[in-house]
Amino acid sequence: SIMLTSITDGLLCCLLGKTPNAVGPLDSVESSDGYSFLEVKPGRILRIRHSVPNRPALPEEPEEAAESGTVHCKRRITLYRNGQLLIENLGDAVRSEILQCHNPSGEPGSTVELEMSETSGQGIPGCVGTGRDGMMTPGKRRKRKPKRVVTIDCKKRITSCKGTHGDVVLFFIHGVGGSLDIWKEQLEFFSKLGYEVVAPDLAGHGCSSAPPIAAAYTFYALAEDMRAVFKRYAKKRNILIGHSYGVSFCTFLAHEYPELVHKVIMINGGGPTALEPSLCSIFNLPPCVLHCLSPCLAWSFLKAGFAHQGAKEKQLLKEGNAFNVSSFVLRAMMSGQYWPEGDELYHAELAVPVLLVHGMHDKFVPVEEDQRMAEILLIAFLKVIDEGSHMVMLECPDTVNTLLHEFVLWEPDTPAGDG
């Protein structure tokens, strides 16, 4: 009966030119029960879950020593015309006692030479050479003229962020087909610990308004929405947590606001490749056809997004309001994923500490992609959750919450003045 209803709705969609199940614009922007509505542009309204802890007025925290937790980020990145990327780390490595760092290029004075992918999404390109211990080593190179050279030389203060700190905000950004409800366990966990948390519904998702034009769902349009949300709620130290496509918006904000973004957490976000929509994709079909296929798509998502497909997982999808968007929005989101600037060089320029969380059974994002991301980033820690898949925050909430909290509290152990 669900399939029959979908086919009927799909035919009506084709005949009448309407978008089925589209979320309508909201009349009110009033706050209630921790939810508020932010008008990022006229008629473009996003639902926001904003939780501010009821903490008593705390005394001013004493300023820590200027060099405490300060790392010296020094890196030279050379991009050659053949697409090769040469990364030279000139500063000291950041050592962590709570997480194992899987970033082979994190050693002081190390050099990494990488081949950039010629086409986006066509597998993970390999490195030029690999040493006996699995660490990247540069292959033989002929002298050639570089296309671009980027030098990063800055000092970054990375401190522990506790729930009692009034200048800390945690931002949670979901991916395609999700909603802020997928973060339910994380929002409750961090709110109880005294953190201020912010989680938006992307346009066309959850209870946010759904503009009826495809241009409203391009990467740049959504990135500007996230910029508006960030500017509205950001404080001195901001931690960005993204899932899947939401990771790209976290990367964008970290690049745009390096002084305000303190740490970034990327959950099943994939490799550091420029976004480009696939030309041969089921999502290029007309919205009415997609709508007819929606039960099959939902089943496929359940199959690929979870390590197990039982009643519990179906309930988690329902509670998380995931994959509950109109076929028009879904098609526009997938075809709007165009972000040529977000290549490996763009990611290599980031000087913010990043935690990469990967569900081992993820059928959307291979673990090799997150390993690639760890190689490119300056300060990165990769943690693989064996029992998790793409929706790991729903499947293994306790594991994810503990891991995130450890990283939020992490502070590099560096000698004063040495960086």
Automatic annotation (TrEMBL):
Example of a GO MF term: carboxylic ester hydrolase activity
Compositionally skewed regions (Gly residues) per UniProt: 123-132
Superkingdom of source: Eukaryota
Keywords: Hydrolase
Keyword Hydrolase: yes
Chain segments carrying region Disordered: 119-144
Gene3D superfamilies, per database record: alpha/beta hydrolase
Hydrolase keyword on record: yes
Domain AB hydrolase-1: 169-271
GO cellular component, one term: mitochondrion
Gene Ontology process terms (BP): lipid homeostasis; negative regulation of NLRP3 inflammasome complex assembly; phosphatidic acid biosynthetic process
Family to which this protein belongs: Belongs to the AB hydrolase superfamily.
Protein's name according to its UniProt entry: Protein ABHD8
Organism: Orthonyx spaldingii (Chowchilla)
Upper taxonomic lineage: Eukaryota, Metazoa, Chordata, Craniata, Vertebrata
Gene this protein is translated from: Abhd8
